[in-house]
Amino acid sequence: MKHLQKYITNISALQFVQLLRFSTLFLIGVVFVRAFNTQQIGYYEKLIFIAGALSFFWLRGVLQSFLSLTKEGNKESSNQKSIVYFNGFIVLTAFSMLTVLFLVVFKELLSTLLNNQQPVMYFKWLLLYILFGSPANFIEYIYLGLNKPKKIISYGIISQAGQFTALIVPAVLGFSLEISIIGIVCVNIFRFIWLIIILCKHTKCKYSSSFISKHIKLAYPLIISALLSGSAQYIDGFIVTHFYDSTMFAIFRFGARELPIALILANAFSNAMIPEFSILSFKDAVAKLKRNSTRLMHLLYPLTIILLISSNWLYPKIFSEEFAFSAKIFNVYLLLIVFRLLFPQTILIGMRKTKVFLWVSSIEIVVNVSLSLLFIQLFGIIGVAYATLIAFFIEKAILILLVSSRYSVNIKEYLSIKLYAFYSILVVAIYLLVDFFYYT
Fold first, then answer.
1. Cα(371)–Cα(383) distance, integer angstroms
2. Per-residue pLDDT reduced to its tens digit, 124-156
3. Are residues 126 and 120 in contact, defined by beta-carbon separation less than 8 angstroms?
4. What are the angstrom distances between the C-alpha of 394 and each of 6, 160, 388?
5. Of 342, 329, 347, which is closest to residue 300 (Cα–Cα)?
6. pLDDT of residue 79 exceeding 60
7. What's the DSSP call for residue 323?
8. CB of 182 within 8 A of CB of 132?
9. Chain Cα centroid distance, residue 103
10. Runs of H (alpha helix) within 3-77
11. Spans of all domains in the chain
12. Cβ atoms of residues 224 and 358 within 8 Å
């Protein structure tokens, strides 16, 4: 086992946990389609969808900005390091409470938007799920800041095993969906307690207005940017749920997942690389970004090709015939790999140049919403996926141009262009062949 320790780094540990999280969600979906009907699955998907839609943007912004400050805090005294983590917790908890308050105040509006004026199912459990679950996401990032990759892995295994058990055991035993949801809420409470224990061990509970002010100042452009650009999947969901019923919403959600491992590994890699810009020289950090992103290409592009070829066969086998059309949607989202493996945003966040994301994301959201509303009329539900693909391309193209023109970082410095072009052209060609032969 000792020879494996050199491969256990902050990057690999964070990627492992994200991959484990997806695997858990995937297995839950496989069991749920056999335990509940499509309408009940739609209720569960809407609950998870609402929780994600109202918290993903501030979670992403707060955590990413915190990562760029963590190493700075660790250079200070041990007390200052502890203050950094405690005040990060304060920020996350405050946002969680505001989200819960927002849900309570706008409950009726939410029911109108998502459920055609029907009440949101399991609303009280949704509130508890967000209140305790959102701050608990801080755990792996505390371990990341403390440079404890083994702790990240241990936490990931325990927490995901708990979530899987809490959701699946009641379903297999024939209990109602609500019992499964109560189970996942209990697991989030357990995770929150774990967070408190970690903070007690590594934190001096001292409020620092200066750190919180600095943190929020760095975070708010990322929060707004994530709300705009990163909300594509949630905007897609809102549009689909407006035009279609819960059954079609479930079919769309099962397909709108791009390459699961790509999203997980790319995001984890990007987040783990951000602190490196505070440790290494800028040149060395960019070179490291290029080396590791090249390794990701060799892993993720072949997986994308395999899934493109097999998804139309796999979806009815793994889930059911009802979800066969989900494969066509899934194949469009697989093409996001072409843009997911570009990391100009990592460089900008590492340099703490976060304000540029505001107007770039504004452009993306306008494109996404406009094209989604147009394409859903022209192509049906799959048109929403096409719109997301185009909008994501525009965002990455602008960021690459910004990094090059404003900060003089050529794309060749952080991307293996020839390899990237080869893989990207191959993936698009295979998609066109699969789509043409399977649906004609």
1. 8
2. 899 999 999 999 989 988 888 788 888 888 998
3. yes
4. 38, 35, 10
5. 342
6. no
7. G
8. no
9. 21
10. 10-35, 38-53, 56-74
11. 7-228, 231-440
12. yes
DSSP letters of 98-143?
HHHHHHHHTHHHHHHHHHTTPPPTTHHHHHHHHHHHHHHTHHHHHH
Q: 111: exposed, middle or buried (C-beta count within 10 Å: 0-12, 13-18, 19+)?
A: middle
- Using the structure block, give the residue that is written with the tokens 């050199």: 6
Alpha-carbon gap, residue 118 to 163, rounded angstroms: 28
The answer to whether 46 touches 124, Cβ cutoff 8 Å, is no
CB 396 within 8 A of CB 335: no
- Tracing tokens 């967070």 back to the chain, one arrives at 195
Q: Using CA atoms, how far apart are residues 219 and 66, in angstroms rounded to an integer?
A: 8
pLDDT of residue 186: 93
Q: In 10 A of CB 162, how many CB atoms? A: 18
Q: What is the pLDDT of residue 75?
A: 45
pTM over 0.70? The answer is no
Closest CA to 322 of 46, 33, 23: 33
Q: What pLDDT score does 259 carry?
A: 62
Q: b/e for 232-263, b at 16 or more Cβ within 10 A?
A: bbbbbbbbbbeebebebbbbbbbbbbbbbbbb
Contact 352, 423 (CB under 8 A): no
Least Cα distance to 115 among 212, 43, 188 occurs for: 43
In the structure encoding, which two tokens stand for residue 120, read together? 């949101």
Contact present, 255 and 325 (Cβ < 8 Å): yes
Q: Cα(47)–Cα(249) distance, rounded to whole angstroms?
A: 12
Amino acid 1: pLDDT = 45
Residue 246: pLDDT above 80? no
The residue behind tokens 């809407």 is 46
Using CA atoms, how far apart are residues 224 and 228, in angstroms rounded to an integer? 6
- Contact partners, residue 325, CB within 8 Å, separation at least 6: 251, 255
Rounded Cα–Cα distance for residues 16 and 18 (Å): 5
What would the two tokens of residue 437 be? Answer: 């032969």
C-alpha 256 chain-centroid distance:
13
Residue 144, φ and ψ in degrees, nearest 5: -65, -45
Cα 286 to Cα 339: distance, rounded to the nearest angstrom: 18
The C-alpha atoms of residue 191 and residue 247 are separated, in whole angstroms, by: 32
Q: Which residues of 13-46 are buried (b: 16+ CB within 10 A; e: fewer)?
A: bbbbbbbbbbebbeebbebbbebbebebbbbbbb
Tokens of 370: 């406009």
Give backbone dihedrals phi and psi of 258, rounded to 5 degrees, phi first: 35, -165
